[in-house]
Specification:
Keywords: Membrane, Signal, Transmembrane, Transmembrane helix. Its main location: membrane. By secondary structure, the protein is of the alpha+beta class.
Amino acid sequence: MGLYASKLHVDPDKKPSPEENHLNGKSFIRFKSITFRRPKESAEKKNEMQQKTGLVEAIIVEVKDREKIGGSYLHSAAICCTPDLSKEGSCNVGEVIIHQDPNYPYNPQRIQTFFEGKTEETTMVLQTVEINHTGMYYLYFMFCDPELMGTTISGRTVWRNPEGYLPGKMAPLMTYFGLMSLAYLGLGLVWFLWSVQYWKDIIQLQYHITAVIGLGMCEMALWYFEYANFNATGNRPMGITLWAVTFTAVKKTVSRLLLLVVSMGYGVVRPTLGGVIFKVLLLGLTYFVFSEALGLVENLGNIDDLTGKARLFLVLPVSLLDACFIIWIFSALSQTLEKLQIRRSMAKFALYRKFTNSLAISVLLSIAWVGYELYFNAADPLSELWQRAWIIPAFWNLLAFVLLVVICSLWAPSNNPTR
């Protein structure tokens, strides 16, 4: 997970005090109630009187220092220390080989936990490891004794950044969602004043635009509070997350339907959609179902800074439905522009030409951004660029907001709304 360096010093051996704000400004990894259980057959082979009969090591390493684990610097492919390497004084038999840099002696860092006698279980000592360098950190639990094969682990680790429990790549999104909720609030206020001024001339399409603005504001606010709660407590209550995901799915669906019906000329060229409304609603319902499912899988699963490759296939149906929307929207726009040109409705034609150009630019930007996203993920398999990863989802929300602003400006309330 991506962690920023601590802003204040923390004593790893000092137990947290409820009376003091011991977490503020600290970045750390804390091991809590970590228990290792080895197979019974392995334990029975050991001597009851022997103190150390098995070793499990917790190794914390920054991704850029991953080559320090294993014997590569000793020109060996071994991960664990062998008797021959031990004779050279490079490592201890039975331990993972770690090359310690004198300038950075605590990276990688190992924490050793031993089994004693014939015991099947051992508990890791409660420890807090301070993070003093910003980076992507991995935690490995490793053992070199083949007799420990089948050992299980239970318990939990607590990872914290200086400002809270949000993973590093998610932390900037909390501020971003807060700013976006204010942006939607500002847009909603301007739209409300427009609507009040021309309330007698409001058409059905403008009510739909109002709904999208309201959904966007609620969506951004929910994500902000969800992230703020996660950052403060380290937990994600399912209720808040579920509401945030649902509002996102609803808003994305309604936004796409709005683009589609606008492209069909609804409210300007044609007063109703006629029989095509059922196809529109069916596409919208299908999109909502898949979008909601994808959102739940992404946000109710494990939260870390690593790319979940197994989830990528879930994007396929949503991407195909997005493609259907794009094709249908531009097909409808082409027909609408053709009708307006035949009718010589030049004011309406100019309006739809501006809308078409704006939509075309947004599609081109989307294609370019998808290409950049694919390149970003392919070029960064170990998430070393985690500090920039937040801009990937942020772009899509910003693009949707800008497109909504364009629609609001083109279809703003006036005394002649069907111009």
